[in-house]
Design a protein that fits this description.
single chain; mainly alpha; Four Helix Bundle (Hemerythrin (Met), subunit A)
């Protein structure tokens, strides 16, 4: 299989969140900032580099993080907020961490397109919800979550995994940065 390199382009624009915006705008800006940060961490790498594992015994890799975040977007926005009952994209009953456990056949092109489609769908779903609106779907805990909580959790999820992505990127090619 030919090695595909994700080009370094200006296509991944990242806008610093406003320091004076209202609550909802701030939450959306911070979430978009972190989404763009993960995409930037993958720029310029080919599929083999994106599959590079962090360090044993961890199976963490950049391609897996992108796939994982596609599933997280789907889980919180489609399933919990909107009640869609959409199946996991990558995980299976046999391998709950299949999103992270990538193979030679798994590509960034597919993972990135899937992730971006989930983000686009999430944006459509949140447009009709207020921050205090409870999701109509079911979470594995049985708890109800409002959109504000979901935004905050998504920001936390991305921030934590972007820290992992920093270390993974440095391992792959020595690049560091925010």
């Amino acid at each position: 299989m030919p090695r595909m390199t994700i080009p370094r382009t200006e296509s991944v624009s990242r806008v610093d969140p406003s320091t004076t915006s209202g609550e909802r705008e701030a939450l959306e800006q911070w979430l978009d900032f972190h989404r763009a940060t993960l995409a930037r961490k993958c720029e310029g790498l080919d599929d083999a580099q994106l599959r590079t594992l962090s360090a044993p015994p961890s199976d963490l890799n950049l391609l897996g993080l992108v796939r994982h975040m596609a599933q997280v977007e789907r889980g919180w926005f489609r399933n919990v907020l909107a009640g869609e009952k959409a199946p996991w994209i990558y995980s299976t009953d046999e391998d709950n961490d299949r999103d992270i456990h990538v193979t030679e056949e798994d590509t960034y092109e597919e993972a990135f397109a899937t992730w971006q489609a989930e983000i686009a769908h999430a944006r459509t779903l949140v447009a009709s919800h207020g921050l205090d609106d409870l999701g109509v779907g079911t979470h594995r805990t049985g708890q109800a979550f409002n959109l504000r909580w979901i935004y905050l959790h998504m920001i936390e999820e991305y921030a934590r995994h972007n820290g992992h992505a920093d270390l993974l990127r440095e391992r792959v090619d020595g690049e560091t940065g925010d």
